[in-house]
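Entry 14. Structure prediction run on the chain below.
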Amino acid sequence: MSKVNTLEAMSIDELRSFIPLVGEELTVVVQSEPGCGKTSLLSMIAEDNGDKWRSPKDGYDIDGDKYDYIYVDCPVKDMQDIGMTIPNHASKQLEYYVSSLFNLNSDKPKVILLDEFMKSPKLLQVVFTRLMLERMVGDKPLGKSVVFASSNNASDGVGDSMLAHAGNRVCIVPMSKPTPKEWLPWAGNNGISRIVRAAVAMFPRCLASYTQGDEQKDNPYIFRPTNGALSFVSPRSLAKCDVIVKNRDKLTENAVKVGLAGTVGAAFAADMAAFMSLEKTLSDVSDIVKHPDTIDVPKDISAQLMIMFQAVDVLETQDQLSKFMQFVKRIPSEEVQSVFFTMMMRSPKGIRLARNNEEIGKWAENNHDLF
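Output returned:
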């Protein structure tokens, strides 16, 4: 299998800018392997517009301040979920009635995600194709609307296909899988526990992609179309497993291991089990801030990482940050130190502290070659 050229893919951050700019005239079909965050593009675009789009578990909020945000779960829809033709007895004609899903009673422009479009029944693909090409639902115009779609890679082997004549009328864009460097700031800003974040930082191969070719053929963590595994590491499964990690003290050790294995796969579950055992031996950041020059620095890199991820979460003042930096500078590896610096600069709370901190400034000046 040949290695995919990274220039042929966009990052999720590039797509959240690209789709709104072109999406009224050109439908973007985003493709990636499972669990990489394609669906989250709708909420990201809402956030960029100053609107809030609730998650599916809360019910879809299509009534934003500026736009209606419409999520269409294509594989589970049938024709009557989109619209249907019914008799008008007064005119003795058939008229097309559109589902309330599209909120046509609202005059606001719409942002519509056709999620897992290529898994739609073929008849519905015809209906969705008109929506994508003409901004029409059946015979009814949407008006000003951004329409985009998502699907898996054809090489993922999960049943994605598209009508050829439609493919030539849209913009099919591969989305690159988030790297640990991209995923970790998101995880920190969304409350993912330090154990999960530290494990990803320690084992960055867990977010590699099978599309990278032979170098990943023995990677035990990732999705590979050829091995049939249902549980593997992805940005989605990492977020999902966090509820198990956070409730580990209420569960048996066996329940935690089996639950993690069923979410992120056995290999990564074993690695996280080791991190959970290690966590019990670590000094708390509050104690480190009190004694930054004398408290023991753990020799294990994974332990160092876990302490730094906790610090990003809990440091609140310039004084605390300055004292913690005294501890960071005692860590032998400048590369490991750089993890803390990077996470602080990519955290909204962290950057407010770090941008004016003298100790951070000195460290960045002395280690600029690391970036």
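The beta strands are 28-32, 68-73, 83-88, 93-98, 110-115, 136-137, 140-141, 145-152, 171-174.
Filed with the rest of this week's runs.
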